[in-house]
Specification:
It is a single chain. Helix content is about 50%, strand content about 15%. By secondary structure, it is of the alpha+beta class.
Amino acid sequence: MSRYDVSPAGTRSVLAARLHESAGTPRTDDAARDLLLKGVRDVVASFIAAPPEPAADGAIVIRADEPEHLLDLVRHISDAVRPEHATFGLAVATGHPAVGSLDRAVVGADAVTTAALTALLATGLRNARVAILAPGRQPLLESLISLMLEFTDRMTERQRQIISLVRSSETQQQVAQHLGVSRQAVNQSLTSAGWQHIRRAEDTARDALAVLARERALES
């Protein structure tokens, strides 16, 4: 695996992902890796610190500018690979490491990438969709993000479309006009999809990832 070019003020937060078959067996073929890479092509470049890179056994690794952006990457990839299932390993080392040289920063990034891949190996459809090392495991946060993914897996395509429009800052009335339906129909779709619960869970998970980064920064 190649090293990342990390500035001394950069964030060391890494996501690793790979696809699993319905039975829980990880896919290690090139097509699986290509599908994962497709899942991040349209992600806003401002929170990806380096291009996604291939890793062993069909996995990819991505370094994010901020640890809370790892959650956005999880969501984008999970949506893009449907109906396939992806599992994720997240590693958060520190928010803004106070390193004395570029060499130390690069070594630190390599260590976090290794941690993310180690966490990825701990996942599987039978037990977890997400594993986090920061540096220890974070079972409550892992469960929260895994449940969010399960909620999303159960959505209809119309519910996904409506939530995507809401995420793009459209109001319910604007979504209704966009789709040619009533505002009540939009509200009903959001309610049945559990949108309010998902949004709160996402806010909680982002805050928790940011806190983990700050805690690691204090330890550095």
